[in-house]
Amino acid sequence: MDKNNNNQDDPKMKMPKFNMNWIYYLALAIIGVLYFTSGNSNSSVKTEASYEQFKKMVNKGYASKIVVNTDQNTLRMYVKPEHIRDVFQQGVDKTGKEPSVEIQFGSVDQVEQFIEQSRQKGVYTGDFSYENTKGNDFIGMVIYNLLPIVFIVGIWIFIMRRMSGGGMGGASGIFNVGKSRAKMYDKGTATNVTFKDVAGQAGAKQEVQEIVEFLKNPQKYTELGGKIPKGALLVGPPGTGKTLLAKAVAGEAGVPFFSMSGSDFVEMFVGVGASRVRDLFRQAKEKSPCIIFIDEIDAVGRARSKNPAMGGNDERENTLNALLTEMDGFGTNSGVIILAATNRADMLDSALMRAGRFDRQIHVDLPDLNERKAIFQVHLKPIKTDESVDIDFLSRQTPGFSGADIANVCNEAALIAARHDCKSVGKQDFLDAVDRIIGGLEKKTKIMTDAEKRAIAIHEAGHATISWFCEHANPLVKVSIVPRGRALGAAWYLPEERAITTKEEMLDEMCATLGGRAAEELFLGRISTGAMNDLERVTKSAYGMIAYAGMSERLPNVCYYNNNEYSFQRPYSETTAKIMDDEVIAMINGQYARAKQILTQHEQGHKQLADLLVEREVIFADDVEKIFGKRPWVSRTEELLEAQQKAEAEAMAERRAKELEEQGTSLEEKVRNDSSASNSEE
Fold first, then answer.
1. Distance of alpha carbon 407 from alpha carbon 62, whole angstroms
2. How many Cβ atoms from other residues are within 10 Å of residue 609's Cβ?
């Protein structure tokens, strides 16, 4: 308790952080005020008059003091306060307390003689003095000439420091623009992230852990003749944990860790990028053994143009050349390991990807079912959940989700539970969070007519019906006609995670996707724009099957995929393009006809499903099963789901029986106690 009070009373902890920028602002403001107001420091009025007028004013007794400037042959006559209005035709409030009149004269002797005569007459009794302004004029001239230059230079330095990220000088000042901006993490300043916080990337984590182990215990590898890898490139989609792995390395390595982004090398000044690369490796060599991490390396490592006339960025290429030389050139970088991360490895320069620079390419892919389960376990630790939350079910419900998406699901679920004033986060909160992320925000206030609502229900019921009767279609979870995001309705499935996909599976998915448009045409007699997203997905899938996967009857076993970034023509002729178009149209039309055939066979069931959707707005797989019966084909995912539901039902029944047994025991004890109490009373 005393310790906390001491910390609170400590004046050092309450002192604000000193910022040098305020001194710069204050100095510039003072200089500006002095410059623009230096000519008007005396607020009293000054005017000019002739020598004859001066003699008349002195004879009338207006003068209070006379000062002669022999360098400029001028004099200033200060006017008495009671005669200010006679001379200036204004009051003291406008002229000031000591207004003066400046007179040009010819000879100093004449002025002295006139003043002596005036004193003898008694018309002037004030002071008569001399002044020399030669030194003051020189200083004023210097100030007036140099002050604007100093002011402009100060503003220029301030702007340039701001443009180069400065504020406090140091490595980001104008004279240090070529210095590296890498942040160094040492043993005392390591991050709090460790390999325990990285879940779902066992292979990638093992590769990175080996690098850390090499730095900690190099003799284990060098005794067998092994060499430390010079670099490792983390490649994978966004959100899969590449930067998180690098943070874990910084927390586990126990050696200096330099971290910076690829965009930190890019600057508006020519040659700055290459200078920063050289400075970064110079610091790393001084701290070796150490690790350099460059995030988003594609900002500087993009493939160099093969045609100089295309107008490539020379500054970026110079930076890349410096990076290539430092990583593996004539100079030795022993003990310096380079880690880099990118999600656009296909755009990197081939010289950067070769062995000797990046010896390893570590693929950080989207997590599979078991990896998603491990990621959920990490992100659910700080969240208060109830017994209804099942990590296995959530893992199956989030196929294709990255680690960042799963973290977002957990956070959204907690926010939804808090919005409903719940004490813990339940299963339904997680399902709502998944729906929110996949489909968008639910728009319950969107106004729709009954005809539109009916059309959407028929469309979504068409998807559900066909997916129920296609063998390889994904199992249905629920169907909704509540608008979400840009979609007016949606169907949620529990897709199987396949290592390879067959032609039959892709055709079944295509048929189920076309079920909405087919239902509109069959049961409404018209089609709408509601199927535009479905048609886009089907068209892309069909072109992929024919042009890339070689699944066409007229173009079998041919792949026209082209990864050449600088190719301006397709790798096939116009005749082949026409064949592709014909095959795509034939494939889509065939599956569309198949969808209409399935819907015609199950017209009554489709109508019941659509009516149920209009009534409830959301239906689940159990409702579809009551209408159509069990699916003719049971997938592996459905088997797992059914087994889990069966196990949950058995566990619930067992728990209920145990509760009843405990209640029965307590009831028997109560009856026994009551009977014994009555006997004692008798």
1. 89
2. 26
